């Protein structure tokens, strides 16, 4: 595969200058993919973007399936880019898994026809001096533990939205604060895109799928499911009010001494103050060995 050249990975006639129905085409630069998605839109197709950092798992596949089911004559586009801007000093940028061939195979299996696979120089040719600021919500929860993380996320998502010009964009509820911040940015800054959240996909023991689960040691892997058990314990007593939810979740987390809990919070569905009744969200983050885990569930108080 050559750099900066659109590459068709299976047979099939090229149309629209870089889109071949029935085959996977990989575009490596903004200048390559932007005219392709715009030509498709002019031809009446809808573009459904699934932004990823690769290391695709069943959760990403579920995003792609939702993208395919969006209304209209949809063309799903998967972007794969490990965005350095959203990693803090000492985080896992260098060791983040990058199984490119397996990712492209997953895209083929999900019948994706367009993949956007830029390099860092393609996305940030002049560095990243201009960024998008998330506002106060970006400094809470994940943002308090990972300063600057959401500015990095919103900056790259903004660029992806401008480059790919999607009608729809799909994000997992696993990264719930990211989903809420992207929705807020789209509202606040008038992006012409519908942001769709997709429920978390879980392992049989309840562990939320994440590309970072590969970091878990064999001993820690079963312990990691404690997070989901704690959230479920909280949700199970939701009729007894917010304090009971938090107490039950905290008690379940305490059963696993190896977990270092960073936060456990009950918020409204937009991550605002804890409600006394109605819809709420229970969120947790913890460290287990060298791995950070996050999870969340909806709760009806
Ligand atoms: O959720 C992710 O994988 C990333 O944060 C995203 C949205 C692709 C931006 O880099």
Automatic annotation (TrEMBL):
GO terms for molecular function: pantoate-beta-alanine ligase activity. Keywords: ATP-binding, Cytoplasm, Ligase, Nucleotide-binding, Pantothenate biosynthesis. Belongs to the pantothenate synthetase family. (R)-pantoate binds at residues 86, 178. This is Pantothenate synthetase. The reaction proceeds by a bi uni uni bi ping pong mechanism. Homodimer. It is found in: Cytoplasm. ATP binds at residues 53-60, 172-175, 201, 209-212. The keyword Membrane does not apply. Beta-alanine binds at residue 86. CDD domains: PanC. The active site is at 60 (proton donor). Its EC number is 6.3.2.1. NCBIfam families: panC. It comes from Pseudonocardia aurantiaca. Pathway: Cofactor biosynthesis; (R)-pantothenate biosynthesis; (R)-pantothenate from (R)-pantoate and beta-alanine: step 1/1. The gene is panC.
């Amino acid at each position: 595969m050559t750099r900066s050249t659109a590459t068709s990975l299976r047979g099939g006639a090229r149309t629209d200058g870089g889109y071949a129905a029935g085959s996977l085409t990989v575009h490596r630069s903004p200048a390559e993919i932007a005219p392709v998605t715009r030509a498709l839109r002019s031809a009446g197709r809808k573009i459904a973007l699934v932004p990823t950092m690769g290391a695709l798992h069943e959760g990403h596949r579920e995003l792609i399936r939702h993208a395919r089911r969006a209304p209209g004559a949809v063309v799903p586009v998967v972007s794969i880019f490990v965005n350095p801007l959203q990693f803090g000093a000492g985080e896992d940028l260098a060791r983040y898994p990058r199984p490119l061939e397996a990712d492209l195979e997953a895209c083929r299996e999900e019948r994706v026809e367009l993949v956007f696979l830029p390099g860092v120089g393609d996305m940030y040719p002049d560095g990243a001096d201009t960024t998008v600021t998330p506002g106060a919500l970006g400094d809470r929860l994940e943002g308090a533990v990972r300063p600057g993380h959401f500015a990095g996320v919103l900056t790259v998502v903004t660029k992806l939205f401008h480059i790919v010009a999607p009608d729809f964009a799909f994000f997992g509820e696993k990264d719930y604060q990211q989903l809420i911040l992207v929705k807020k940015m789209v509202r606040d800054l008038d992006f012409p895109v519908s942001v769709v959240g997709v429920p978390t996909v879980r392992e049989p023991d309840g562990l939320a799928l994440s590309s970072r689960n590969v970091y878990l040691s064999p001993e820690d892997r079963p312990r990691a499911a404690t997070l989901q058990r704690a959230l479920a314990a909280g949700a199970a007593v939701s009729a007894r009010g917010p304090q009971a939810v938090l107490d039950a979740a905290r008690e379940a987390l305490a059963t696993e001494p190896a977990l270092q809990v960073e936060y456990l919070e009950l918020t409204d569905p937009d991550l605002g103050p804890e409600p006394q009744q109605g819809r709420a969200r229970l969120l947790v983050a913890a460290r287990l060995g060298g791995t950070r885990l996050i999870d969340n569930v909806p709760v009806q108080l």
